[in-house]
Amino acid sequence: MTNRAGNVLFITADQWRGDCLSALGHPCLRTPQLDALAREGVIFSRHYAQASPCGPSRASLYTGLYLHNHRSVVNGTPLDPRHTNVALEARKAGYEPALFGYTDVSVDPRQHHPSDPSLRSYEGVLPGMVPVVWMKDTPRPWIAELKSRGYEITPAEVYKPKPDFPGAASRGATFAPARFAAADSNTAFLTDEVIKYLSVRQDESWFVHLSYFSPHPPFIAPEPYHAEYDLADVPLSVRAATPADEAKQHPYLDYYLHHQREVDVTFGSKYKERHLHISDRDLRQLRATYYGMISEVDAQIGRLVAFLQDIDCYDNTLIVFTSDHGEMLGDHWQLAKYSYFDQTFHVPLIVRDPRPESARRGCVGEAFTESVDVMPTI
Q1: Which of 20, 28, 54, 363 is catalytic?
Q2: What is the DSSP string of 288-343?
Q3: What is the per-residue pLDDT for 300?
Q4: Kind and range of the H or E element at 270?
Q5: Among 12, 15, 114, 228, which residue is least crowded by beta carbons within 10 Å?
Q6: Number of other CB atoms surrounding residue 117 within 10 Å
Q7: What's the pLDDT tens digit per position in 252-296?
Q8: Distance of alpha carbon 129 from its chain centroid, rounded?
Q9: Is 54 one of the catalytic residues?
Q10: What whole-number percentage of the chain has pLDDT above 90?
Q11: 3-class DSSP state for residue 134?
């Protein structure tokens, strides 16, 4: 341990359910790298997001404020600049927070000219963050890298699967793998960029926010992750016998089951009410692909942790891993994250504090915790 100030590695995944960690007893999913991180830190089994979808949830995560206080209630609702956040607080401690990925925070239009390009998209950057690699809805830095590696690919078709892939017809719509290799994926690219950034900063304190897109849909994984899980091992969704039976619990649910938003399940295949008729096979495969995407992120986090160990930074780095919200995966006859169930709001949280006085290594925190706790904890 050096005498300089500690580093911060703040990792978020998008749409990662809280039950999707093998350390918490998932019946088939394997997350060995995050399990190892949990053994050296604390894993929180009852951790919950404040809101859904991404924008309002991340506003709570970054500011430590509840939805009714920050009032950014849906994607595209501006975040009032009067609120502080994790990046601004880090700056007060002398850090320059570096962003790899995205924050989904919309800028306040009162602070910008009406012609400012930042008002053309809801995907702004959290104030205080330096966007070293900014990945918006169209992840241009990654697509440019794919092109430089010889891929003939367009932004509109970057998630298009391999055509006529063997076995896809019998395995379901999300089985066919991506056309890019795992080493060239969005997840690997962001990890590569963080490693490059840190490779010249071993002797200074740093704050990195690494924001992975996976396992957010469209559900597609590169080889070999697309076939990581056997359908026979994948649990079916938890739901009532029929949508009508499910709807009996609340009038809102009755309405919503028949008015769900379109969901980009996979390239060229949007579901709106079709999820009510999706076959068990397709649903198992959708879940298997989602698990495969999680396995890929887990592997890349392991690669990043190994790099920190190689450059002698691991024992001086606070590592926080969490997600903005979950994913229904067919539970309660729903996909995506627009519901009031645990599957939407229960998210993972692992905190690895490197300081010797942090004595609770390997513990499972079973108390109720919330995303608003993360910013003040960091």
Answers
A1: 54
A2: HHHHHHHHHHHHHHHHHHHHHHHTT-GGGEEEEEEES----TTGGG--TT-SSSHH
A3: 98
A4: strand 269-271
A5: 114
A6: 8
A7: 999 989 887 766 787 766 555 567 888 889 899 999 999 999 999
A8: 18
A9: yes
A10: 84
A11: strand
